[in-house]
Structures are given as structure tokens and as C-alpha cells.
Amino acid sequence: MEPWKTEIAYSSETETLIRGYDLESLIKNRTFTEMIYLILKGELPSKSQTTVMNAMLVAAAEHGIAPPSATSARMVASGGAAFNASVAAGILALGDYHGGAIEGCAKLLQESQDKSAEEIVEEFRSQGKRIPGFGHKIYSEDPRTVALILLAKKEKILGKCVKKALEIEKELEKATGKKLCLNIDGIIAALLSDMDFDWRLSNGFFVIARAPGLVAHVYEEKTKEKPFRRLEEGKDYEYVGKKKRD
Question: Residue range 32-61: average pLDDT?
């Protein structure tokens, strides 16, 4: 069997290298955000890239108890599962409609630069498909997106992918008659694309960003709530099956 190969890190009794950089030096001189960028991309970020990526991580770290990831993590924790299993349950709840749209949106933006926003919208609508990264159950305009765009402009990180995403947002409103905002998944996808991250890596970014929030939810559930949450019929759910029968 051939040996496993990796370009990410090397560790021995005398040294540990992360993408070629000495770990002790990184500990002394770099932030966690810079470390994430280095591990994922293979190179250290510029100051502007660090600032924007740090803001993206902050924006995606937590969004309340209602999202599927938080409720899943807490429900599993309430059953007495181990801490890591409870957090893992929250991560497993991420999908196409919660955090997972980053990958689809990034793929679209990276592979459709030769198409106009109008063509993209028409193509998805003709297939009856939803464009990933647009629309939100709460927001008509996602404030996290607005804040990240302003920062990206200031740091001169905003590029062709963010611009294309904003064009799609306008075309969607024209075509549907309602505002389907560029959401947090969409803006992260666009910014990662403008920083030349492969779209296949993008969903991993949301996992990294949301993990601290899930850890906090699991800890709160284990320390402040009674064990074994369950739904109450008539309050939390409704039985709509057949009535009692012989």
C-alpha cells in the first residue's frame, strides 16, 4: 500500500510545520483567523483578507436557538449524549437550506462568469430551481450581508463575484416581483470566490464558523436545562394520522 500524502502539515520530535511554517512561530505571530486561512488556502492572508475573513467568521458564528443546527445539537444533548456527539449533531443538520448553500452559490459564481445575471436567473427559473445563496425567512435585506459588503469595499476585497451576486439579486427581484436578498451564505460564497477559494471548500468554512455557537448551545443545554426534551402534542406538534380503529 502506498503511504498517505499531505501538503497540510508535518510533525516530528523536533518540529511541526503547517504549510511550511514553523508552528511555534505561528503561535507567537499569527491569529486564529490567519491560521484558518493558511490551513485552507496554503498561504498566509494579507491584512485586508484577514480583516474580511475575520468578519465573515464573526457573522456566521451564531444566529440564535431557532436554526436546525442549534435545535438539533440541543435536542441530542438533552438525551445525555456526549459533548462532541451533540456538537456533531448540530453540524450534521447543516444542509442546502442552512449553511450548505455556500457551496452551490460559490460554484455558480465561479463557473458562470461568462453569463449575465439575467441569463442565470432565467436558466434557474426555467428549470424550477432555487438559486442558492438568495432569500431568507426573516430578512428582506440581510444585515450581515450589508455589513460584510461595506467592509469588503473598505478593504478593497470586493471583486467580480460579489458584483455578479448583487446583479443576480436585482434580476431576481425583477423576475419575481419580490426581494430575495443575497443572504449570509451568498455573500460568504461571493467573498470566498473573490479570494480565490475553490467552491468545493466553501461549505467547510461555515462548519468552522458555526462550531463555536454550537459548542455554546450544547454547554447551555447541559448546564441550564433539564434532561430529555420532548415535544408536547397540541403545543409543539399535531397528530394528523388516523383516529383509533379496530
Answer: 98
Kindly state the cell numbers that stand for 150: 461595506
* Predicted local distance difference test score (pLDDT) of residue 3: 96
CB atoms within 10 A of CB 12: 7
Report if residue 240 sits inside a domain.
no
Asked if pLDDT for residue 140 goes beyond 90, the answer is: no
Residue 169 CB neighbours (<10 A): 23
Query: Which CATH number characterizes residue 126's domain?
Result: 1.10.230.10
16-18 and 9-11 beta bridge pairing: antiparallel
Are 12 and 71 part of one and the same domain?
no
Listed residue (98, 69, 99) closest to 86, CA to CA: 69
Torsion of CA 191, 194, 195, 199, to 10 degrees: 80
Residue 16 pLDDT = 98
Q: Contact 231/85 with Cβ under 8 angstroms?
A: no
CA dihedral 145, 70, 221, 211 (to 10 degrees): -70
Strands (E), the chain: 9-11, 16-18, 21-22
User: pTM above 0.85?
Assistant: yes
